[in-house]
Amino acid sequence: MNRMHKENFKIKKDFLLLENNKSSVIFSTAEDERSFNRNTDEGIDAINSIKEDFNVDKVIYLNQIHSDIVLNYNDEIDFIENEGDGIITNKRNIAIGVFTADCVPVIIVNEVDGVIGAVHSGWKGTFNSITKKALQRMVDLYSVNHKNTKIYIGAHIRKCCYEVSEELKEKFIKEKNIKEDILFDGRNLSLKECIIKDVIDSGILEENIYDFDSCTYCEDKVKLHSYRKSNGSYGRLFSFVLLK
Ligand SMILES: [Zn+2]
What we know:
Layout: E1 2-4, E2 10-12, E3 15-19, E4 23-28, H1 41-54, E5 58-60, E6 70-72, E7 86-89, E8 94-100, E9 104-110, E10 115-121, H2 123-127, H3 130-142, E11 150-153, H4 166-176, H5 180-183, E12 184-185, E13 188-189, H6 191-201, E14 209-212, E15 237-243
Zinc ion is lined by residues 158, 160-161, 215, 217-218.
């Protein structure tokens, strides 16, 4: 696994940007106090500004419901009213992304087969292995070979700060088949370890996993939105990917 820090990204406005050959992976920050909350006018303006800033035809996102639903984007449907928490596509010049403020944004890129994905993985999505389902959908629809797939795990609330109930802890230990001391520190849960296991089980190579090693709750080098830290404010990060 490759750990990434702010220094590994190009900075463009209040975004952190990774330029690959045929794709770009982008994480918004709260450096300019912008929020990508789709339920606010400010958020819609911020989302729309991505078209110009990154030269894409459309910005595609979902009505996120903490599900394990993964949808495939094609031109025919009005996508933004659809409920779900994962999007995949093989369309070029389309940004697909997810909103988070502590939950895990997972970006999937396969440049060889020309397929990308964006997943919103909170505790429910992580518990229900939504990333694994997105990776499977890519195989089912596009025959993607995951030997060439790269995974980018964005900033989220990490084991350092993510305390859960005893009940939820038991639930994860029972279901996840990961050593307790890797998964938990006391009642602090690592969503990342669950996602990494799902990703490895799906055939992704460890060297192709990139972890943006920042916690939305306690990171001090880059400003990020945290739901817990702000007592549930409307600040949202938007993590997205596009095929050039
Ligand atoms: Zn933390």
